[in-house]
């Protein structure tokens, strides 16, 4: 089926990224996997390549575009190669929308040039131990000092992707207690410098998948955050978080579709090369039927992911549509990758094969950004149920 979502600029970018992956990532990826993170220096290379600046205004060193299509190409190309770019996805997909939406001109001048170059990597700290998807239940506090020059931050966060290498973290904290009418009231966002006294990184978490993406626990003990680093208005944090959830969920949906597409590619190559009972595995009817069924599911997921991308770029992707895309694409990816691993037999369980890593990486897609169960709740609510 002919796709209409990408143009010549996107395809030129695809060629550049594909060559970059082959030269800079594939040869060292096993080292990253063993270390449990991409090296900090790698992000400078992405900065030099211009990856971080695509959606940043030109006056701050970016390309000045307003589109997620280049991110979509990145998802497809990293999945195709069986690699990922560590915590850099959070830097662009999660942190940048908040900076563009909330930062003052003064803040943008301070933050964005280093954001584009990779000199300052950003992460988003929302989840807390014991709260999970219940953002309104957060306990981390930020209290304004008596002289009004800074906030005092106390609390803890967990599952923070990019948290080990981050130079600044957008931290969600309570600046006031929830009201009786609205428990979501009183949350604010802060751009916290990770070099601040009292800021500490706990464990680098040992994850099932996404092994090259650093994920950490963070702790704040009387961290002084200058009032100049408050993002947006005090108390409106929950609204801001909700505003950007559609783009986050689109990213997870598109990434899952790209992984499913890659899985079919890996399985197709493997069954043509692997011989059983004197024949290539690809010659057996079951293999053909399994891959054909997987391809049909990938075609459907591609259409859903592309439609959501066009709606997102047009500013028209609703929360329910984003939830639907995430639910469908992540569930398709789960089924397709499992079936493609099965076609690899015992080798599919070995980490030296990309399908095994893909299987582990994919599992979190149905959890983070809102679980599949929460996606169903959102969709049902939009149906008036």
Write up what this structure looks like:
The strands form three sheets. Strands 1-4-5-8 form a four-stranded mixed β-sheet, covered by helices on one side. The two termini are 35 Å apart. Helix 7 packs antiparallel against helix 8. It has eleven helices and ten strands. Helix content is 49%, strand content 15%. By secondary structure, the protein is α+β, with helices and mostly antiparallel strands. Keywords: FAD, Flavoprotein, Oxidoreductase. Belongs to the acyl-CoA dehydrogenase family. Residues 7-119 form the Acyl-CoA dehydrogenase/oxidase N-terminal domain.
Q: How many E-type strands?
A: 10
Give, in spatial order, the strands making up the sheet with the most strands: 1-4-5-8
Order of helices and strands: HHHHHHEEEEEEEEHEEHHHH
Instruction: Give a quick account of the main beta sheet: strands, pairing sense, barrel closure.
Output: 4 strands, mixed
Q: Roughly how many Å apart are the termini?
A: 35 Å
Helix content: 40-55%
**Average pLDDT across residues?**
95
SS class:
alpha+beta
Radius of gyration: 21 Å
Q: Which ranges are low-confidence, i.e. pLDDT below 50, for 5 or more consecutive residues?
A: none
| Beta-strand percent range | 15-25%
**Please, how many helices?**
11
Which of globular, elongated, flat, extended, rod-shaped describes the shape?
A: globular
Domain Acyl-CoA dehydrogenase/oxidase C-terminal: 235-383
Protein name: Acyl-CoA dehydrogenase family protein
Family: Belongs to the acyl-CoA dehydrogenase family.
Keywords: FAD, Flavoprotein, Oxidoreductase
